[in-house]
Amino acid sequence: VQDLGAITKSVRQVTLPMPDDGTDLSLLMSMLRPQEEVQERDEPWEFVNLKTEIYEIVSNLYGSNDYINDDL
User: Fold this and answer.
1) Whole-model pTM?
2) Neighbours of 8 (CB within 10 A)
3) Are 42 and 66 in contact (CB under 8 A)?
4) Going along the chain, which residue ranges are E strands?
5) How far are the Cα atoms of 30, 31, 35, 41, 42 from residue 51, in angstroms, in the given order?
6) End-to-end CA distance of the chain, in Å?
7) Which long-range contacts (CB under 8 A, 24 or more apart) does 10-13 make?
8) In this predicted model, what pLDDT tens digit does every residue of 9-26 receive, in sequence order?
9) Taking the CB of residue 52, how many other CB atoms lie within 10 A of it?
10) C-alpha to C-alpha distance for 6 and 27, rounded to whole angstroms
11) CA-based diameter of the chain, in Å?
């Protein structure tokens, strides 16, 4: 259970100013998440490894190598 201070802080983080034209932002606001929920650890990567992972994913999706250009 969060205390009032934590709730107030999280509300402030996802509060946007009301637009002058009266646009309803309720749908957008319902989809926003606190930064802590979407933060990812920064991991170094190498192009060759990334290319290999993408190649494997595309191969699994299409079941053949007809759509894959090995010259990239």
Assistant:
1) 0.32
2) 11
3) no
4) none
5) 36, 32, 29, 21, 19
6) 51
7) 10/34
8) 666 655 667 778 888 877
9) 11
10) 23
11) 58
